[in-house]
Amino acid sequence: MQNDISLSFTATLHLDQHPVCILSEHTTGPMTIIHPYTLQLVELAKALGILIGPDHAWQEDRAVGLIDFHLASEPVATTFYFRHVQGLYRLYVRNGEHHGQGIYRPGNLPQAQAVVGQDPSLWAVLRAGEGGTPCTLAELDANSQIHLEKSSSGSTLAMLGIGIGIGGFLQATKTDPAATLTLNIIEREVDWLG
Description:
This protein is an all-beta fold. It is 3% helix and 41% strand. The radius of gyration is 16 Å and the shape is globular. It has a single domain (9-188), classed as Trefoil (Acidic Fibroblast Growth Factor, subunit A) (Trefoil), CATH 2.80.10. The strands form 5 sheets. The protein has a 6-stranded antiparallel barrel with strand order 1-9-10-13-15-18. A 4-stranded antiparallel sheet has the order 3-7-17-16, with no helix packed on it.
């Protein structure tokens, strides 16, 4: 019989072969940008996204005032712990500066935060290209194509551009196409304390 531990796992995520990471772990300077739709300032320091380098590739974005940050290191995928709870998953960070933090979704922007009081957001793992059917670890291969859907709202993670378009951040939305993520499973049947 399967239980929550047997359906929990660690994994990294990639988008178009680029590692999904917590953006501030690979940048210096402010990670505040103008949101491409709302034109409001958005703080992306603890947000999830992709950064395509090298740093000089971002110079045009800096020159026109779209960004202020610099790439400090080659982006490495964040390792996530997918903790199974009643057919859904809570995500926790298992490496880097934000190790031990959960992925919460304030204002539709998933980001790493300390786990205090409330558990991290619940996400459904959906198979990409198969009608978006929910699945658990038992149905996933080592490198499955997935979408992540916020269980309470039905909004999926989509990639929105940073600057002119050589990077982006993940945002939960119902209007943009879901980002197809490659789930690279590292270890299966991982206990919460593992």
